[in-house]
Amino acid sequence: MSVTLRLFGALRELLGTERMELELESELTVEQLRRVIAKKYPKVADLLPHLAFSVNLEFAGSDTLVKHGDEVALIPPVSGGGDGQGNQRGIGG
Amino acid sequence: MSVTLRLFGALRELLGTERMELELESELTVEQLRRVIAKKYPKVADLLPHLAFSVNLEFAGSDTLVKHGDEVALIPPVSGGGDGQGNQRGIGG
Amino acid sequence: MVKVTSEVLAAEPLIKRVSSAASGAVAVFVGVAREFSEGRRVVFLQYEAYREMAERKMEEIVAEIKQKWTVNDVAMVHRVGVLQIGESSIVIAVSAAHRRDALAACQYAIERVKEIVPIWKKEVFEDGSRWVGWTG
Amino acid sequence: MVKVTSEVLAAEPLIKRVSSAASGAVAVFVGVAREFSEGRRVVFLQYEAYREMAERKMEEIVAEIKQKWTVNDVAMVHRVGVLQIGESSIVIAVSAAHRRDALAACQYAIERVKEIVPIWKKEVFEDGSRWVGWTG
């Protein structure tokens, strides 16, 4: 099976692409996918603990199942809105 | 001595002028002036208890002294700002 | 900058005026002439100001804001005269480095305008009119 | 109406868009590209969005607002791409019959944007750059 990975910001720059297809042996959880990515792309391994994930445009918990054809995004801490003051509650609730 | 009276809104309409010179025998307090006006202009007597006074562009308490040449305004409850929702604290603090 | 004016109000010029390179946020309040007041249809509004005192009180509010919050600039313009439904009665714009200062100060500004700025509104209905604010 | 766009933002069109005869107040928030960030001079900003998800999350925020407050309309536009200092990154406009609903909802909107909308800011300095928001 394969999933589409969407990459933004520092991740996009580090991996040199904003989108990639990732081949996986079977369905797996977001947490398992996080480990797969860390292993395959060591240069972003340090960033991964600080990321949220979305699956098909919705924030996903660690045990959300990722299926064939899903679009998965690695979501860095968001910083839209201007004024330079982040929101301490962080992302995705 | 004389003072200038400024009138607004319903008061201006009732008395038919936005400004008048008022001749007074002597200096007096805002509260005394209120009674003088009520007596001289009975048609606004009912409104006077609901008014604030300003003397020379500042809100004035009941015992503020009014002197020759002062500009005194009768200040109805204010309703600027739009949106139709007044402020319960009223005027002049 | 504070002003009482009979000209039509727009927000963008005030936003530009208060913005600077040090501003990360501008909070704006626009008061608008509304068609219904307590169920009655308003044909138009008429605002009247004790102009000299109103501008002085608006300056006082700006000074209060600058004491209470870290803001860069405040602009506040109130319209007088006849307003058609949908036209703006007041525009307040507050710039600050940070959004929470701008937002809190803007909210404070409109509350204070309604407390201490001598401006009065008359609602004109199809079958009458009234000066707003008389509690008696 | 929500949108992620690379075009220059203006507040007035959004104010007009949310205004109606039933609106007594419009509250507006404008986020502005600021020159200094923690003491360093910013040359320009670059915003990047996960556009499809960002617009969906902005729609969610509008729905949350309509549940929490009595508002007439909400418009929210976020800019992406390169922003010069002084340009607007976001404009939010909320109309309501009454000012307190408009103001509270507008404040809520910008806080929620910063929590859940996947948009990222890069600050470009004279001698480097950084993506904002990494706490690690």
Notes on the protein architecture:
The complex is a heterotetramer, with 2 copies of chain A (93 residues) and 2 copies of chain C (136 residues). Chain A is an alpha+beta fold and 93 residues long. Chain A is globular, with a radius of gyration of 13 Å. Helices cover 19% and strands 28% of the residues of chain A. Chain A is built from 2 helices and 7 strands. Chain A has helices spanning 9-15, 30-40, and strands spanning 2-6, 19-23, 28-29, 52-55, 58-60, 65-66, 71-75. Chain A has a 5-stranded mixed beta sheet, with no helix packed on it. Chain A has a two-stranded antiparallel ribbon with strand order 3-6. Chain C has helices at 12-18, 51-68, 99-116; strands spanning 2-5, 25-32, 36-37, 40-49, 73-79, 81-84, 88-96, 119-125, 128-131. Chain C is elongated. The model of chain C has no long low-confidence stretch (mean pLDDT 95). Chain C starts with a strand and ends in a 5-residue tail after the last strand. By secondary structure, chain C is of the alpha+beta class. Strand 2 of chain C pairs antiparallel with strand 2 (25-32) of chain D, so a sheet runs across the interface.
Number of strands of chain A: 7
Structural class by secondary-structure content of chain A = alpha+beta
Overall average residue pLDDT of chain A: 89
pLDDT below 50 for ≥5 consecutive residues: which ranges of chain C? none
The low-pLDDT segments of chain A are 88-93
**How much helix, percentage-wise, in residues of chain A?**
10-25%
Task: Give the CA-CA distance, first to last residue of chain A.
Answer: 30 Å
Count of distinct strands of chain C: 9
Strand percentage of chain A, roughly?
Answer: 25-35%
* Chains forming the largest contact: A-D, 31 and 36 residues
Structural class of chain C: alpha+beta
Helix run count of chain A: 2
**Strand share of the residues of chain C?**
35-45%
Shape of chain C: elongated
Please report the distance between the alpha carbons of the first and last residues of chain C: 35 Å
Question: Mean pLDDT score of chain C, rounded?
Answer: 95
Q: Note the main sheet of chain C.
A: 5 strands, antiparallel
Biggest sheet overview of chain A: 5 strands, mixed
How large, in whole angstroms, is the Cα Rg of chain C?
Answer: 15 Å
